[in-house]
Structure prediction request, 82 residues.
Amino acid sequence: MQTYNIHDAKTQLSWLVDRAAKGESFVIAKAGKPMVKVIALNALELSQVKRFGFMAGQINVPDDFDAMGADVEKIFDGDASS
Prediction:
């Protein structure tokens, strides 16, 4: 993400607004310290992004999933004879 100082942002404001409107966000800094992030109004915010179920249909959970750790559990319980 590109960073611009306040002076550059003031002199190139129209150009920067056009870029942000096209989806290209940027940061404005003051004395080298980032102050604000500029994004388009229609850009999805992190809170709007759906995360739950985003891989639905792409992962298969085996039927014996709950029993898969039984061998490891036996080892830690001291029953390594199996």
User: Anything to note?
Assistant: The two ends are 55 Å apart (CA to CA). The first helix runs from residue 6 to 11.
